[in-house]
Request: fold
Amino acid sequence: MMNKKLFLIIIALLVAGLALFFVFKKTAVKRDAKSVDRALMLYSDGDSRVPVDIYFADTETEKFLVYKAEIFETKRVENGIKQSLLILFSPPPQGYVTYIPEGSSVREVFMDPNGICYVDLHGSITANFKGGTSAESHAVYAIVDTIMKNFPKVNGVRFLIDGKEAETLAGHIKIDGILRAD
Amino acid sequence: MKKTLLIVLFISSAFLCFGAQSTMPPASETSENTSGITVVIDPGHGGGEWGASAGNIQEKNINLKIALLVKKKIEASGRNVNVVLTRKDDEYVKVQDRAGMANSRKADFFVCIHSDNLPQEKIKGHAVYYFYSPFPAQGQGELVVKWDDVQKKHMARSEKAAEAISKYLSASLIPELKGAASGTNDVLPLASRGVRKTRSYCLNGVDMPAVLIECANINNKEDATALKDDKVINSIAYHIKEGILAYLRVK
Ligand SMILES: [Zn+2]
Reply:
């Protein structure tokens, strides 16, 4: 009798666990504004916020669709760029799509004395990229535009992948040299 | 009498020429000499490099299928154009080696065949790219040419070629399919997304006019279904062949 009860409890717990697992698995790719906010705070110098334009894309055409977001104010340009790229690299809000593959991330951002912004991407962006020339070109310029149109001190963008200058993002578009917003 | 005969001959040949100019003539039906010309057809990706993918579609396989057909159709056109493929089966070939094959043969035209996967499911069709870099071409006329600029020297002609291929890819003109079992003699390839320029990694270092064709958006259901249809693949290959021959004729 006791054993049967225990057995039922275990089964119920297993079912509940599985249900929770699938619910979380399904919502995992959804936008989690709170966790993005917490990540942004790591690069902030206080609580006040400033607006930024994030270059997501339209759901029906290839055109960029600017998403009006806010980042925390910071004295360091690099930290402002890091916050903006955190938003660009997170799942897009409803009504927008992104050219950046899911799970991609920025390793580091730094500026040189000539105003060139170095963006060091994690190598997973190359492995996870599923698109061709158009998609790859848009992905590159989503990053370049998000940086250059929000941070006028930046005079050009150079890409690194896993700390090294890369010739291409995922095999279709050349990303060596200095890139500037269209 | 002789004079009258000459005038009649002149007028009738003028009429014949005028008739042949109607709308868009199949490039393969004109007979300008293209012998001694080499075209390199480059099916993108291969082997472990799939290129774009969606569901069970792998870009590398579609690229190869189309490229093999384009070669066959150019050779069957009787135009004496030498066609070289950068890969004939499912193997990985470095982008630099593909450019090298074309450069060492001193080819006249380089055509990359690819397909895209855009996040927007509603976007469909083909786009034809030529190389663009924001930096001015250096070294023209000098002994040392900065290699990154080598494709830039050919930008104007590559643009012209891209326009020719885009124009033919958008045309509804498939005489080869006339009388086919299905009765379809007018399978349009796919919608057109136009001619574009970009910092193409695949065209970089190619020392001749070069274009890259994105045949379709495999993330679009209609495009994906169309690419599984041999009639559509045949139609895409036919129009690419026509565009190539049209460009070679006028270049
Ligand atoms: Zn490709």
Notes: The pocket of zinc ion is lined by residues A 132, 172; B 44-45, 51-52, 59, 114 (CB under 6 Å).
